[in-house]
Design a protein that fits this description.
The chain is mostly helical. The chain is built from four helices and no strands. Helix 1 crosses helix 3 and helix 3 packs across helix 4.
């Protein structure tokens, strides 16, 4: 059980870093059109899209990725809680 949790935690951490990189890439449009940018777009946009539908941008700032990362971390904490209360 601990191995599964640590692998899941590592996956969530890597995905969080991918989300942060994708967010930062919006400041440099030329990077978005590279192969790395297209890869990040394919893995990040499906997760970010529902948050963008719910949370409108505040002026020029889109806070939906911040909420998406928060929800991802909250879900991970919930999984830890469930795993350690069952054991």
């Amino acid at each position: 059980m601990a191995i599964v949790l640590s692998l899941l935690s590592l996956g969530v951490q890597i995905y969080t870093y991918a989300l942060i990189a994708y967010i930062l890439m919006s400041w440099v449009p030329s990077i978005q059109h590279s192969s790395f940018g297209r890869f990040l777009s394919r893995i990040c946009e499906p997760y970010l899209q529902p948050f963008r539908k719910i949370i409108p941008p505040l002026g020029m700032i889109d806070i939906s990725p911040i909420v998406a990362i928060f929800v991802l971390r909250l879900a991970m904490n919930g999984i830890y809680y469930l795993a350690y209360t069952i054991i």
